[in-house]
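Pipeline run #58 for the internal structure catalog. This entry was flagged by the ingest filter as a single-chain record with no existing model, so it goes straight to prediction. Upstream metadata was stripped on purpose; only the residue string is passed forward. Reviewer on rotation: M.T. Logging verbosity set to normal.
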Amino acid sequence: MTSSVAFEQIDLSLPEGTADAYFAHPDGGARHPGVLFFMDAYGLRPWLREMVETIAGHGYSVLAPNIFYRSGRAPVLPMPDQSNADAHAAFFAALGPVRAALTSAKAIQDADVYLSQLTASEFVTPGAVAAIGYCMGGRLALRTAAAFGDRVAAAASFHGGHLAAVDQPDSPHHAAADITAELLIVHADQDGSAPPDQIARLEAALDTANVRYTSVLYPDAEHGFTMRDTAVFREDAYQRHLRDLFALLDRAFPATAE
């Protein structure tokens, strides 16, 4: 299904400030299942807008908040020159304090508000929504599914890192028993933040908790392969991720307007 899409940039009121956000939904004024989209570390930018609109065009109402809003409106930091290793390193050095401002507890506090504001929209079907995320957003999508139970019907992580880190109390695998959503977890086989031992540990935790999930390793892909504005983008892997994502969403929701 491909629908024409309405897009707007909106502000969300949170206890610690205002988060700017992208919001897209099929044209026509009807309600559609909601999708909470967690950004990667580069933040809201034209390519994420295109991704949000692509998902909306499949029949969903999609909200993508600037989760770094405590540090400013998007772009909190400009995208670095992907061909310049020094610029890339400088970007992530500058990003350190920005990420530090979003503590584990604050991320879940914010997710609660994002979910509430998404489901309150006149363009969103009442009931549970999906949470999806990329890179650091993938980890947050899984944590959101664990924290909010039946408010999240499906969750997906794409090239999420450190999903089963034993030394991190907020690692998603520790909360597997709290997940009721169906999960899709896509790893890149050349991603140092998702080594084989962590993938196996995550799958074992999900199996023990009887979580419905699909865990898949994309070949010849690096961390961040869905991001067209980066040097690691892979068109074939990006298209495969859309097919896998839409299959998950279409299982979880009727995807029909009210």
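catalog note: Residues 225 and 234 are 5 Å apart (CA to CA).
catalog note: Residues 5-252 form a domain with the Rossmann fold fold (CATH 3.40.50.1820).
status: ready for reviewer M.T.
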